[in-house]
Design a protein that fits this description.
This protein is of the alpha/beta class. The protein has ten helices and 13 strands. The longest helix is centred in the N-terminal third of the chain and has 26 residues. Homodimer; disulfide-linked. Interacts with PXYLP1; the interaction increases the 2-phosphoxylose phosphatase activity of PXYLP1 during completion of linkage region formation in a B3GAT3-mediated manner.
């Protein structure tokens, strides 16, 4: 038994001596472990550097938000609105004026279908806070709707829109507000906004930088959910419409805007009161632009920002009955 333990101890001793000798020999050999150590150290250094940069970014104050351009630097939007006397006239104009008041750098051209200015419209303009020009021109009797005729038989607002174009080109005839037309070189865009439509504020910023003629869809018009240009690769290639799609420009009056310099450069361009039904817009645009050069707006004409709404005609049976009894509403109260 003692012999076996001695043999085991001797074997253990010899193996240990051999291992020690191998280790001593290896100490004298070149070691290739230095490059990995250096790479690991570089990674740690890069991480420390990134952490320091992130900490510095957190301590740095946030950048100031981008400031919108000053109103004086914006092109002016000239909004042309024909209007005529009726029970809902003031309600329509109040609603429209409050939308327009949200838009910077805007000039409202309000044109009455009348021989001269009316107190209702004059007072509304004075109270609106808007930059405005008040014009008035009476529609000739031959062009006026006859009793019982539907509204689509004869175009409305032709004389009034043309009167606004005349003022933009040469001035004169203003009965209130700004009397002088835009000076030469004025940057601007002209939009024909009827008083009964509904307008998103975004629409006006879409049109502001129009270079020629810009276009977009109009909701609730032509018997459709919307009418408007069809756009492919950023260009107008057709129109989504149901009624007379072969018109030169099958667009609604609310669906386009024209740059002021272009209008001034084409003095003969105006609306034609004798144009066939549905061709009133084309009678102007045909003098100004080729359909292929139209500028699509509103996300390539995929967003509706204006609606062809109409206020229901009020029923006045009770008012008429009271008037026959001499107890009608006080006419001195403006409605």
């Amino acid at each position: 038994m003692k012999l076996k333990l001695k043999n085991v101890f001797l074997a253990y001793f010899l193996v240990s001596i051999a291992g020690l000798l191998y280790a001593l020999v290896q100490l004298g050999q070149p070691c290739d472990c230095l490059p990995p150590l250096r790479a690991a150290a570089e990674q740690l250094r890069q991480k420390d550097l990134r952490i320091s940069q992130l900490q510095a970014d957190l301590r740095r104050p946030p950048p100031a938000p981008a400031q919108p351009p000053e109103p004086e630097a914006l092109p002016t939007i000239y909004v042309v609105t024909p209007t005529y006397a009726r029970l809902v006239q003031k309600a329509e104009l109040v609603r429209l004026s409050q939308t327009l008041s949200l838009v910077p750098r805007l000039h409202w051209l309000l044109v009455e279908d009348a021989e001269g200015p009316t107190p209702l419209v004059s007072g509304l303009l004075a109270a609106s806070g808007l930059l405005f020009t008040h014009l008035a021109v009476l529609t000739p009797k031959a062009q006026r709707l006859r009793e019982g005729e539907p509204g689509w038989v004869r175009p409305r607002g032709v004389e009034q829109r043309n009167r606004a174009l005349d003022w933009l080109r040469s001035g004169g005839g203003a009965v209130g507000g700004e009397k002088d037309p835009p000076p030469a070189g004025t940057r601007g865009v002209v939009y024909f906004a009827d008083d009964d439509n509904t307008y998103s504020r975004e629409l006006f910023e879409e049109m502001r930088w129009t270079r020629g003629v810009s276009v977009w869809p109009v909701g609730l018009v032509g018997g459709l959910r919307f009418e408007g240009p069809r756009v492919q690769d950023g260009r107008v290639v057709g129109f989504h419409t149901a009624w007379e799609p072969n018109r030169p420009f099958p667009v609604d009056m609310a669906g386009f805007a024209v740059s002021l310099p272009l209008l001034l450069a084409k003095p003969s361009a105006q609306f034609d009161a004798t144009a066939p039904r549905g061709h009133l817009e084309s009678s102007l645009l045909s003098h100004l632009v080729d359909p292929k050069d139209l500028e699509p707006r509103a996300a390539n004409c995929t967003r509706v920002l204006v609606w062809h709404t109409r206020t229901e005609k009020p029923k006045m049976k009770q008012e008429e009955q009271l008037q026959r009894q001499g107890r009608g509403s006080d006419p001195a109260v403006e409605v």
